[in-house]
What we know:
Blueprint: E1 3-4, H1 18-31, E2 40-41, H2 44-51, H3 55-67, E3 71-74, E4 78-81, E5 86-89, H4 95-101, E6 106-116, H5 119-124, E7 133-142, E8 145-154, H6 163-168, H7 171-177, E9 184-192, H8 196-201, E10 210-218, E11 224-233, E12 237-240
Parallel strand pairs: 1-2, 5-12
Antiparallel strand pairs: 3-4, 6-7, 7-8, 8-11, 9-10, 10-11
Helix pairs in contact: 1-3, 2-3
Amino acid sequence: MAARQVTVRIDRTSPVPLWHQLAEQLGGAVREGVLAPGDAVENELDLASRLGLSRPTVRRAMQDLVDRGLLVRRRGIGTTVAPTRVHRRAELSSLHDDLLRTGRTPGTTVLSLAMTRDEAAATAFELPPDTPLLGIVRLRTVDGRPLAVLHNWLPPGLSDLTAEELEATGLYAALRTRGAVPVVARQSVGARMPTPEERRRLALKGTKPVLTMARTAFGSHGEPVEHANHCYDADGYTLEMTLDER
């Protein structure tokens, strides 16, 4: 398989490290589709020679892309672009909107929509544990493939959502039409083994874990407007975040 060359411009006068410049431009080529899943990437020696960089500099850039799930290394094959994943930045947005923004095709199947009681969700809403809440379970697909099982709870005042509305648009869009605009959230990300039902819904093979996300979102006046507990196919989902020195 012939390796694809990507136009890279290295600015040696910039304070940005050379390896980071290379990693960002190659990563951008992957995200923009210049390099497609399965494409072979130039090897370190060729890249170093073409760009006038040291091999350790190129190696660090390539390892960064491997660590971020954009590239994979296979013995006897070399470095190739990883299978398509959903890359989300650490910002308050809906998965539905993120997929549309990146040119992907989201799909939603509402598995259940009913008033229910859930002590953890009620606690998140600062309500008595037996308070009836609107419980929603959805299967989210991307380009026809299952990606996530989404569990959400809404407070009693937002119980008029319909399955048709949720399948046509994202949950946050539906909340915004009701004046319940999520502006800040408390979120935790983890991993665990899937339940048998999650394994079946996501068409998972083997014994790999799922990524999990638990979140409580708050409106402009500090009121809780949504509580969520989601699980994702780890092969198709990445959460990206930028960390600043304190």
